[in-house]
C-alpha cells in the first residue's frame, strides 16, 4: 500500500491520468515490486546457504552453468514478449492468435537454442559434471521463455497480480526443494532440480490462469501474417536484451573458460561478491519503471518538467546509492566472512571494487529510462553494444593475468563508461545542469566518506552491523548540512508519500 501511494502521487504530480488509470498503474507497480523484493530476499538467502554448503569450487561450477545458459535465453524470446505486450494492449481480441503464433515459433527457437548450448559447452571442453549442470540449466531456460510470453498476455491487459503471485511461489518452491537437496546431501546436479520444479510450476500456473481468467487455451501454430509484424516490433527489444544478457554474464563465463582448472574457484569468489550489491538492484529498477511514463509524456509536451523530473530522479538515487556503496566498502570483510565463511575471504576486495560500480548501476537506470522514453532507444542499444564489446575485449586481456580482481575493475569501468556516455546523449535531450549534478555527487561523497569513517571507528568497539545505524544518521545530518538536499526536496518527497 505504501508503494502504491507513492506511485499514485508521482503519476498525479507528473501528468494527468484519470483516477482509474492511476490506480491500475500503481497497483501493478505495487504487486510487481513487492514480488520482486520478496524474490530478491529469498534468492539471496538461498544463495548464501547454497554457497556455504557447496564451497567455492562447486559454487563456481553451479553459477557458471546458470550464467552460461542465461546468455542464450534471449535467443528464444528475441523481444517477442515485449511486442506481444504492446500488441495485446492495443488489440485485446487478438491475444489468443498472438500467443499461439509465438508458441509455435518459440518451439523452433527453443530447440535450436538448446542444441546450440549443448554444442557450445561440448566444444569448450568442460568436464562431464559441468556439462550436465549446463544441460539441466538449459531446460529451465526453455521453460522460462514460454512462461515469460504467457504472462505477457496479462501484462498487455494491465494485470500483474497473478504474475506477481507466481514469482513468489516460484522462488518459495526453489528454496524448499533446494533446502531438501542440500539436507539430503545429493550430488551437485540435483541442485538444478529446484529451478526445474519452480519453472514448471510457473508455466503450468500461467496456462491455467489463461484458461480460467481469459477463457482461452493457446494453440501451437505458425502464423506468418502475425509473426512478421511482431518481429518488426521486437527487434529493438531483442538487440538490447541480447547485449544486456551477454554484458551481465560474459565476465563469469570468461573467468571460467580462460582460467582453466582455476576457473571454478574464480567464478565462485566473483559470484559471491556480486550477489550482495545486485540484491539491491530492485530499487532503481522499480524507480525507473515508475518514472518512465513521465519521461515519455513530457518529452512531447513539456521539456522543462522533463528536466525537473530527471534532476529529482538523479538526486534521489544518488542520495540512496552513494552511502550504500561506501557502506558496503567499509563492511565488506565482515559481510563476506559472516555470510559465506572464511573460505570466501578472497571475495572481499572484489566486493569493495564492485560496491563503487553499484553507483553507476543505479544511475544508469533513470538514464536508460530517459533515453528509451524520449525515442532514443536505438541510441541506447548502441551505447550498451559499445560497452559490451569493450567489456568482453578487456576481460579477454586482463582476466588471464588478474583473474576475478581484473573482472571486478572492468565491471566498475564498464558501468562508469556507460554512465558517462548516457549522460552525454541525455544532454542533447534536456538541458540538465552539469554543475548541479557534480555538486550532488561531491556532497553525497563527502557525507558518505564521513559515514564510512564512523563505521571503521565504531566497529572496533561494537558489532559492525550495529554501527550501521549511527553511521546512517551521521550521513543524513552531514548531507543536510552540506545542502545535499533542501527543504523543498523533503516537501517534494513528502508529497509523493502522503495521500491527498
From TrEMBL:
Superkingdom of origin organism: Bacteria
Positions of transmembrane segments: 37-56, 62-85, 97-121, 133-153, 165-185, 191-210, 230-248, 268-295, 315-342, 348-371, 383-400, 406-425, 437-458, 464-482
Membrane topology, from the record: Multi-pass membrane protein
Record flagged with keyword DNA-binding: no
Main subcellular location: membrane
Pfam family, one: Polysacc_synt
Listed GO CC annotations: plasma membrane
Keywords: Cell membrane, Membrane, Transmembrane, Transmembrane helix
Annotated InterPro entries: Poly_Biosynth_Transport, Polysacc_synth
Protein localization: Cell membrane
Protein known as: Uncharacterized protein
